[in-house]
């Protein structure tokens, strides 16, 4: 099923928008209030100073646009959760099943991470860290927040990872929660993060 949804997302944009709209409505009805409660506890339990980790707001849309568009092209080659123009980023905030979060150094957005929830109690994760802040443990905190949010809500947590993306493959090489489920087309892996 996950492979089919990935195929639809990358090849049939119109159908993907319909799926996302319906999924967002169902997710909001069934899970919005529990997500709000769980997320507050997860941020308290897993945030690590000196950085601040929180849910992104529509007022963060310009900062998110600037963060994404200040990265090297190679850093975005495997990171495509949505389009990166300002209008597309702003629209993403209306999707209840797409949880957008950020890492901040003071008022500066230095990392973006997300959970894409599906009504079948599965979700996908992704993250991007500013090129000037990598190697500071920010990714590990992001992972903990994403995984714990999913697990506390009773969702299975997945990602697709390109084996050509050496940086991500290296960062996940010591991730004890990651299990490879299957190989996908174009040298991608479908992985699940399982509570240890």
What would you note in describing this structure?
- By secondary structure, the chain is α+β, with helices and mostly antiparallel strands.
- The protein has one domain (2-153): Aminopeptidase (3-Layer(aba) Sandwich).
- It is built from 7 helices and 7 strands; from the N terminus they run H-H-E-H-H-H-E-E-E-H-E-H-E-E.
- The chain has a 7-stranded mixed β-sheet with strand order 1-2-3-4-5-7-6, with helices on both faces.
- A hairpin with a 4-residue loop joins strand 6 (178-183) and strand 7 (188-193).
- Helix 1 packs across helix 2.
- The model has no long low-confidence stretch (mean pLDDT 89).
Which strands sit side by side, in order, in the main sheet? 1-2-3-4-5-7-6
| Most strands sheet | 7 strands, mixed
Q: For this structure, what is the CATH class?
A: Alpha Beta
* Total of domains: 1
Secondary-structure element sequence?
A: HHEHHHEEEHEHEE
The CATH topology turns out to be Aminopeptidase
Number of strands: 7
Low-pLDDT regions: none
Class derived from helix and strand content: alpha+beta
Helix share of residues?
40-55%
CATH architecture: 3-Layer(aba) Sandwich
What is the end-to-end distance? 25 Å
Helix/strand layout:
Elements: H1 2-11, H2 13-46, E1 52-55, H3 61-69, H4 73-76, H5 86-92, E2 98-105, E3 108-118, E4 122-129, H6 138-152, E5 156-162, H7 166-172, E6 178-183, E7 188-193
Parallel strand pairs: 4-5
Antiparallel strand pairs: 1-2, 2-3, 3-4, 5-7, 6-7
Helix pairs in contact: 1-2, 2-6
Features:
alpha+beta; Aminopeptidase; 7-stranded mixed sheet; 7 helices; globular
